[in-house]
Amino acid sequence: MLDDEKVGHMYQQIARTVIDMIPEEWDKVYLYGEVEEERQASFFFYYPVASKEPVYSLDIPELYEVDEEKFDQLKDQLYEHIETLWNEYKQSGEELWSTLNMIMERDKFKIEFGYEDLSAPETDYYERSLAWEYNYLGLVPKDSYAKKVLDEYLKKKESEQER
């Protein structure tokens, strides 16, 4: 059984690390993470105050004068926090999620879990990340290859839902 206080602290660690990575005031953050036994990935987008354009987390060092080494340490810390949360679910015997979505605003946050099989050959991380960006942020890729990948992914998901 999950220890709600312990898990709440883990959510706070994830949120604090994300906030520490953002070099400016923000209104909203969308975090995506996925975990499997031996693999973990995550990224986030945030909306700067009074901006309608989101900033991709991995673009931060390039866009701002941010110490890249410190940023990489925080990125690794974020990965570790998400993996620690996943391990807590695993050890407690709870249903094991594969994806995590955290939406943060100044005064609240929301957590959503996904339970898809990430090792299934019909999808890959690139497709899932494009679909996530589209579903959560309304972002449509600019380059033709990424658009094609997203379109194929969305068609595949639509046909699965019709079954």
TrEMBL record:
Signal peptide: none
Pfam families named in the record: YezG-like
NCBIfam families, A to Z: staph_tand_hypo
Identification of the protein by name: TIGR01741 family protein
